[in-house]
# Entry
Amino acid sequence: MRAGRALRAVLLALAVLTGCTRAEAPPPDPDVIRFASYDFPENQILVEVYAEAARRRGLPVSVQHGIGTREVVSPALQQGVVDVVVDYLGTALSFARPRFPRPPEEPAQMHAVLSRTMGGRGVDVLTPAAAEDQNGFVVTGEFAAAHGVSRLSDLAPLAGDLAFGGPPECPDRPFCLLGLEQVYGLRFGTVTSMPSRAATLEALLSGQVQVGMLETTDARLAVAPVVLLADDRGLQPRENVVPMVRAQVLDRWGEPLRDALDGASARLTTGDLVELNRAVEFDGRTPAEAARAWWDAQ
# Structure
């Protein structure tokens, strides 16, 4: 039943993206490069960074934000509903090759496998950035001190009595709850689906949950009274930011588009990503405003 609901959700989202109604949807505009983001703020920021790079090369761009999870966006890219997606290397590879027997650990090798896989699906994987963002798991500083917790493995004797908070897709993701169970043996007493990372932090601080998922580049980690637990058994893969483009679109726009996106990757660091997140979360800028300011500073 879950698979059926997921398929219906994907089909519905694709219908919305393409503007399908009972009348036949108009064909996509071949003269606009359609960027699309996942349904969380950092990815919206990243898409704006790469879209702005294309704009500054004089390329026509449109941006669609918050399309959905990878289960929605990846088929949309492969089916030509959108043209450019900004992903994270390890998660993208795991999603594209879920039964890969021995996934590589080094970014260059991961990129090579992902490129071969997606190339067969009509998608080019461009140069990854140095910027990297992994799933992180946090507790409050008070909880860490009271229980002597600093590593994920320290949660093993406590997990059954703890509440976990994270994004709705977390229970089925190999680098979220599924991975915590398989690699660390962590089975939490309760799991609460959180609508946003801000809600996760609020739930932590209020005591609604004791463990929460936040990305390692979340600007709130520097100011909130929380502790990022060490991934001492290496659950998380390398997660370099990487743009993926439909091959037909890259052929259509050629080197100007490739150079624009590769140029963004060449400049973007993990520190930049933290500051971009800070500009949106704390300074009230939109993702587009933060991206433009970052490029102006370049």
